[in-house]
Fold:
Amino acid sequence: MENAIDITLTVNGAKVSRRVEPRVHLVDFLREELGLTGSHIGCEHGVCGACTLRVDGTIVRGCLMLAVQADGCKVDTIEGISDSKEAARLQKAFHERNALQCGFCTPGMLMAAQDLVLQRKSFTRDEIRNHISGNYCRCTGYQSIVDAIEEVVNGKS
Ligand code: FES
Ligand code: FES
Structure:
């Protein structure tokens, strides 16, 4: 690793230091170096949302960010948020509404949905659709996903 760079970041609350190649994307670093495989890789060019992560409080595409760019940052993955009460409510609503089939999009969808829940206000269905418009699902047709998110963000569950 001739050009490798030392980075330190906080992942799901734990400090992590590694030596990484500058070309390694953040989602690959998380999956391959840290074994956090909950973030999926679909298109690898910022379109499908399967790799959605939270970096310093903002949701980002893990396939468009390099691991070295996350040096000093706080990174949260689906593994880190899954014990939060927002995620638990979303997971329950997704389950009850059949808002997943193959489940490939689900971690990214939950990361995006949690972002709405954390804003602690009501959203219309159009606003929810707009918020998840960067998260593709090839199975469900989205209706049940919007139903599940609406149920949680608008306080019905
Ligand atoms: S894998 Fe990152 S947006 Fe598709
Ligand atoms: S449940 Fe299969 S891609 Fe969304």
User: Anything to note?
Assistant: Residues 4 and 21 are 4 Å apart (CA to CA). The pocket of FE2/S2 (inorganic) cluster (ligand 2) is lined by residues 100-105, 137-140 (CB under 6 Å). Residues 85-96 form the longest helix (12 residues). The longest strand covers residues 5-11.
